[in-house]
Write a structure and sequence with these properties.
Chain lengths: ~120, ~110
């Protein structure tokens, strides 16, 4: 069965330092994986997606993620954190069923950026 | 602007009251979904509709019903609201043949049951 585990519920970094948000997935077939960001009291915004093309995926706002099949991981990184990056981040794996596909969400990682 | 529209944005209900959350999309997507978001639990699927005329239960369907009124609209009904249904509800749509594009989400409905 498809599932996704976000290894940290909270991450704190200083402004200007690197960001690493960890995600491990379980899938019985080659998955599609996504990262979404949610700023306080806002909706969900797509950061980036992996769909079996390049394993290193670049997204918006300087974020990128690397798909590592051998490690079943899809960690999100950014070289230098900005105050505006403070938000909650969700890793998502897709499950294909009944003629459509469903998102399976991780429990989220709340990123705090310290001045 | 094309997208997913949810109404209302905020709602307070008393225990036992009923209400319907509305969702409409104008992207001609076949599939629509309802999720609830609770702190520390991510988003959990309540119901989904793979195509017009079909609906299926998701992970947490108890206490809810849905109607796929037409291709555009997918409503979520709480027949007898309970405090445990206090949550933020998101509607989304997708096109099954375009999985690479992912979901389009609405802006959410914040529901409080007292």
């Amino acid at each position: 069965a498809q599932s996704v585990t976000q290894l940290d519920s909270h991450v704190s970094v200083s402004e200007g330092t690197p960001v690493l948000l960890r995600c491990n997935y379980s899938s019985s077939y080659s998955p599609s994986l996504f990262w979404y960001v949610q700023h306080p009291n806002k909706g969900l915004q797509l950061l980036l997606k992996y769909t079996s093309a390049a394993t290193l995926v670049k997204g918006i706002n300087g974020f990128e993620a690397e798909f590592k099949k051998s490690e079943t991981s899809f960690h999100l990184t950014k070289p230098s954190a900005h105050m505006s990056d403070a938000a909650e981040y969700f890793c998502v794996v897709t499950l294909t069923t009944s003629g459509t596909y469903k998102y399976i969400f991780g429990t989220g990682t709340r990123l705090k950026v310290l001045a | 602007n094309a997208g997913v529209t949810q109404t209302p944005k905020f709602q307070v209900l008393k225990t036992g009251q009923s209400m319907t959350l509305q969702c409409a999309q104008d992207m001609n997507h076949n599939s629509m979904y309802w999720y609830r978001q609770d702190p520390g639990m991510g988003l959990r699927l309540i119901y989904y509709s793979a195509s017009e005329g079909t609906t299926d239960k998701g992970e947490v369907p108890n206490g809810y019903n849905v109607s796929r009124l037409n291709k555009r609209e997918f409503s979520l009904r709480l027949e007898s609201a309970a405090p445990s249904q206090t949550s933020v509800y998101f509607c989304a749509s997708s096109e099954p043949g375009l999985m690479n594009y992912g979901y389009t989400f609405g802006s959410g409905t914040r529901l409080t049951v007292v």
